């Protein structure tokens, strides 16, 4: 995480300043920010990395909505992967002699929990889209 490598501050309303604790990691921090899908172009003055945050145009807002949707989809995939792993554990227990009814109940509970978290993620994505597109 960036907080473990550097201090992050906002110098004015449109500039974020990242000051690494170790000057040797300055290039790595700059590279990580540049390669992120956020579309920022950091500048390095030898001591700190400055990130100019552009004003949000309609086009930029659409890009940010796409990024938020992408993160949401990745989150839903992660939840489904956790469900798959948990289902494997339930199936293993069933093979080890746990009653079939109990296993089916646990699978149903697992599906309810998964559906709940997927709905929370979808709600968060919709809320974030509203926030981003609001002028």
From TrEMBL:
<dbReference type="GO" id="GO:0006412">
    <property type="term" value="P:translation"/>
</dbReference>
<keyword id="KW-0963">Cytoplasm</keyword>
<dbReference type="InterPro" id="IPR002661">
    <property type="entry name" value="Ribosome_recyc_fac"/>
</dbReference>
<dbReference type="Pfam" id="PF01765">
    <property type="entry name" value="RRF"/>
</dbReference>
<protein>
    <recommendedName>
        <fullName>Ribosome-recycling factor, chloroplastic</fullName>
    </recommendedName>
</protein>
<dbReference type="InterPro" id="IPR036191">
    <property type="entry name" value="RRF_sf"/>
</dbReference>
<dbReference type="GO" id="GO:0043023">
    <property type="term" value="F:ribosomal large subunit binding"/>
</dbReference>
<feature type="domain" description="Ribosome recycling factor">
    <location>
        <begin position="1"/>
        <end position="132"/>
    </location>
</feature>
<comment type="function">
    <text>Responsible for the release of ribosomes from messenger RNA at the termination of chloroplastic protein biosynthesis.</text>
</comment>
<comment type="similarity">
    <text>Belongs to the RRF family.</text>
</comment>
<dbReference type="InterPro" id="IPR023584">
    <property type="entry name" value="Ribosome_recyc_fac_dom"/>
</dbReference>
<keyword id="KW-0648">Protein biosynthesis</keyword>
């Amino acid at each position: 995480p960036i907080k473990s490598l550097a201090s992050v501050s906002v110098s004015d309303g449109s500039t974020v300043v990242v000051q690494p604790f170790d000057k040797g990691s300055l290039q790595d921090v700059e590279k990580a920010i540049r390669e992120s899908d956020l579309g920022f172009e950091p500048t390095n003055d030898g001591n700190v990395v400055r990130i100019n945050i552009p004003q949000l145009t309609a086009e930029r807002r659409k890009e940010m909505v796409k990024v938020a949707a992408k993160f949401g989809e990745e989150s839903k995939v992660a939840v489904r992967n956790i469900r798959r792993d948990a289902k494997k554990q339930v199936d293993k227990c069933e093979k080890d002699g746990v009653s079939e009814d109990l296993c089916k109940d646990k699978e149903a509970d697992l599906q309810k929990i998964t559906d709940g978290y997927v709905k929370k993620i979808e709600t968060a994505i919709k809320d974030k889209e509203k926030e981003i597109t609001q002028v």
